[in-house]
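Q: What would this complex look like in 3D?
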Amino acid sequence: MPKHQSINQNLQPDALPNFRNIGVTLRTVLCVNGMALLIAAATATSWLEITLRMADISALLQPVLLSSLLILYLLNPLFARLNYRQGIAVVMILTGLITLTIYHFGGDLYVQPGEYSNFLAGRNTLLGGMIAGLLLAYFRLRTQALSPALHASRLQALQARIRPHFLFNTINAVLGIVRANPKRAEMALEDMSDLFRMAMSYSGELVSVQKEVALARQYLALEQMRLGERLKVNWHMENLPEDALLPPLILQPLLENAVYHGIEPLAEGGLIDIRLYCISNEMHLEMYNPRTEQGVHHEGNKMALTNIRERLNLQFDIEARYTVESGKDFYRVHILLPYVKVANHDAC
Amino acid sequence: MTHVELPLTIFVVDDEPPARNRIKELLSDCSVQLPVEVVGEAGNGYDALVQLSEIHADIVLVDIRMPQMDGIELAQHLNKLPNPPKIVFTTAYDDYALKAFELHAIDYLLKPIRLGRLFDALSHVRNAIPLRTQELQELTPEPRKNLSIHERGKVHLIPIQDVLYLRAELKYVTVRTVNHEYLIEESLTALEKEFVTRFIRIHRNCLISKDAIEGFEKVAEDKDGESHWTAKLKGLDEKLPISRRQQFIVKEFG
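A: Here is my prediction, written as structure tokens for the whole assembly.
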């Protein structure tokens, strides 16, 4: 992935899908079987015949589909070394060869004695390759459809940092303490510049969980300066693997919502509870904050959440889940992500 | 011509301690040219209202976005005081309020506040026209959380969730809670508009709280034998007549 992306460059660089993602696998299985069903229906002359044809097709199709998925799963790390065109060629040829191999060595299962012909072998090989090509085209279109979210999120992240409410109140607070406590004021300005730097250099690449947590803490320190005792934060990170990676700027916008909608409207303040943990290869991010019954400013809230949802969808497909529980006096966000480690960076 | 002026007394309301600190520092910077005295400070509207019933301030500097009672509601209640202070709003950013300020030509201070702007505002505010309650309500989309009356030199708050009905009579509006009845000088139409989510009109002169509705009863009128609907509210024996035009309410809430 090129390091420098212009902000108005609207498309993701093309890349093969991640064959180790459940979403990709599931979509492939559904699409291929869907196509088979269409073919079965197109050639059938009665309802019953559709099922018979489907069974015929499946006999060759399912083994080819499953072994292709398995081989692509195994080879997935190697694809990272190829450029997009080479990748497409390799995947199409590979699928064609798998089809041919299974057809050729499948023996009596596929070929009645005397029926084997070069035409059928060639046709099946080509069909295998073509279907793989069609699916790759589908994944490319899907990525393109979702990628504006990533770029929008970068802009939004930037705009959110310069959200006037946060910016001016924080500057005002720094001015309020600079005479009495210049050291604290210096620290606040440093934290602020780190936050802005992160938002401006945002590229969408995964960052280490420590980095993301550190940024979130810097943000909270700024809010603490303004709100003092009213803002209490509890971090629970006992079961957090140190080598985990997270999409950047995922915690901070959620925290900002929690502060703005949850803590600020409460005179006595409240507690934001953050839990980060990993269970059987899944990362969980949980955030809980109290809130008052009536809240008016909920538009901005939705925007940040929608954007995070789209980013997760693009990066992890169905392997990421996102639930919001909104009670009368509390608000809870629960995000579930695949556990991506530092060494195993190919999952994005 | 010179005459010795008493220092301007100033009260500061902001929920963020550093923001209050900033204003106090600027005020002490101001005092070189303009004698000012900070007579108190508060972190929310309630606290400010209690303190300002005891002590007088010429000017109250009020932050708009605060928990519990925001600055605009505070200003509306302060207006009920016998000698209401002049109010200068401060805000870091509030799109809605800023538009309204411009519309009504109300002076305000943007945070971070500059010394020069504060000085100007303090110098001019003495001659400023006092803000009307109605005008203040237009500064925010949110209704007040309390109605207020002036009672023996203090402002008494009536939490809006305690109000069962509002009834217009001549110059005043009667505010009825379970145990009390108050008179306020506001228009029923404006109240209806402000509290549209909480109250519903049952008669030309009466709004009732939707949450307080216990039931509806048909009452026969003795004169022409015609009967009409009345509303029964929780905790009240009184039955409030529903006008013919508003009878759909019986179906909707019955």
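A: To summarize the key features: Chain A is about 60% helix and 15% strand. The first helix of chain A runs from residue 22 to 43.
Q: Very helpful, thank you.
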